[in-house]
Automatic annotation (TrEMBL):
Organism of provenance: Halospeciosus flavus
Cofactor(s) the record lists: pyridoxal 5'-phosphate
UniProt keyword list: Aminotransferase, Pyridoxal phosphate, Transferase
InterPro entries attached to this UniProt entry: Aminotrans_3, Aminotrans_3_PPA_site, Class-III_PLP-dep_AT, PyrdxlP-dep_Trfase, PyrdxlP-dep_Trfase_major, PyrdxlP-dep_Trfase_small
Protein name stated in the entry: Aspartate aminotransferase family protein
Length: 430
């Protein structure tokens, strides 16, 4: 059945659809951290729709309320609804540092890219600037503004001109740079500072700094201590908004509500999406300091920012994560998986680096010369699929095995899944 669906999709769907050819799968049903395909095969889901199903597939606590809401009202544009206000209050309370209790939320419509566009417009509106500081190895989305601050030139080359005056500074990646973490941070911050502060040749009229606190598509790159704080300092000294893209790293994935909390650094604005709608319902938001709320009515607009079932999903997902202590659980299970992967890589020079926080996990593979080994990661992904575990890849060179299981993954499921990944690592070793 999977084959038939894929054949039909090839005939009638867009050529732009993209998934790895080595996992020939058609989904039918999800439950918790498992997925069933249309042929009845059951998989452990270690990718969760790219970090969407944080509370698990078909979470009953979320679905119960969503079902009720679907029968009642689905769309309210910007008019108030109880779920909308409830979700705003929860997000304003959960926001990190001094954003908590001092923030505003603007919903962005269905995609993370929508929230990124809102954050770019917010920064420009408040500063009157137009230059954007972003980072190498970043991913922020597929719309024109989001593509502009994304660094991957392969994704952008057919769409020029994008936004002008975007500079991509280095994002510290000690493993790839072969530098010690402190030096890597220093080098990155120096370039950001030069970009903003150089009198000649700097970025004219900057509007803000946009950064993933932990890079996702770039390969689960966890910046060393000091980097985000350094950006905070530069932003403060130059009176610029610092914007964190928490679309992949946020909403509990790293074992804190927001990746920013691991570093004790508070942004002026942050984006969230993916897991925000609860059970895969599309919703995104930009949460920003109330001092930046200078917009007037309609200065930023959108039809689908009143998706009531997704808002109900968000409220319920937050409650579920809190009542089941899923942040601590994600930390414990994530630490276990990282440890087990490191053990599996002992004596295997191909497994260069295992990193991440909570259930945001990356394992970077290199060949015997230390170059990115995407073939190995593809082979591991295929082995895992054939043995019942769905895993994802990431990184500029596609050489990072990326794991983003639902936060409800049980310890037992983690053990079974990681054992299969460890087998895949062994089976693909030279
Ligand atoms: N920012 C980050 C950090 C992301 O990981 C993504 C999606 N992978 C986006 C933005 C864009 O989100 P969407 O695909 O929903 O537009």
């Amino acid at each position: 059945k999977s084959d038939r669906l894929r054949e039909k999709q090839n005939e009638i769907d867009s050529n732009a659809v993209a998934y790895p050819n080595n996992i020939p799968l058609a989904f039918d049903e999800g439950k918790g951290a498992t997925l069933k395909d249309v042929d009845g095969n059951v998989f452990l889901d270690f990718f969760a729709g790219i970090g969407v199903y944080n509370v698990g597939h078909a979470n009953p606590y979320v679905n119960e309320a969503v079902h009720e809401q679907v029968d009642k009202l689905t769309h309210s544009v910007d008019f108030p609804t109880e779920p909308r206000l409830e979700l705003i209050e929860k997000l304003e309370e959960l926001a990190p540092g001094n954003l908590s209790g001092n923030s505003r939320v603007v919903f962005g419509g269905p995609t993370g890219s929508d929230a990124i566009e809102a954050s770019i417009k917010l920064a420009k509106y408040n500063t009157g600037g137009r230059g954007l500081v972003a980072f190498r190895n970043s991913y922020h989305g597929a719309t024109s503004g989001a593509m502009s601050i994304t660094s991957n030139s392969k994704l952008k080359k057919h769409y020029a001109p994008l936004l002008p005056d975007v500079v991509h500074a280095p994002f510290p990646h000690p493993f790839q740079e072969g530098r010690d973490p402190e030096e890597s941070v220093e080098r990155a911050l120096e370039e950001v500072r030069a970009t903003i502060e150089q009198p000649y040749g700097g970025l004219a009229n900057p509007a803000g700094i946009f950064v993933e606190p932990i890079q996702g598509e770039g390969g689960v790159v966890v910046p060393p201590e000091g980097f985000l704080q350094g950006l905070r300092d530069i932003a403060d000294e130059n009176d610029l908004p610092l914007v964190f893209d928490e679309i992949q790293a946020g909403f509990g994935r790293t074992g804190e509500w927001w990746a920013a909390e691991h570093y004790d650094v508070t942004p002026d604005a942050m984006t969230t999406a993916k897991a925000l709608g609860g059970n895969g319902l599309p919703l995104s938001a930009t949460i920003y300091h109330e001092d930046l709320d200078t917009w007037g009515p309609g200065d930023h607009a959108g039809t689908y920012r009143g998706h009531v079932p997704a808002m109900v999903g968000g409220v319920r997902a937050i409650e579920y994560i809190q009542s089941h202590d899923l942040l601590d659980h994600a930390t414990e299970v994530g630490d276990y998986i990282r440890e087990r992967l490191r053990e599996a890589g002992e004596g295997d020079s191909g497994l260069g680096d295992v990193r991440g926080k909570g259930l945001f996990i990356g394992a970077e593979f290199v060949d015997s010369e230390g170059n990115p080994d995407d073939d190995r990661v593809e082979a591991i992904q295929q082995y895992c699929y054939e043995h019942g575990v769905l895993v994802w890849t990431a990184g500029q060179y596609d050489n990072v095995l990326r794991l983003l299981p639902p936060l409800v993954l049980t310890q037992r499921q983690a053990e079974v899944g990681t054992e299969i990944i460890a087998d895949a690592i062994a089976a693909t070793a030279e």
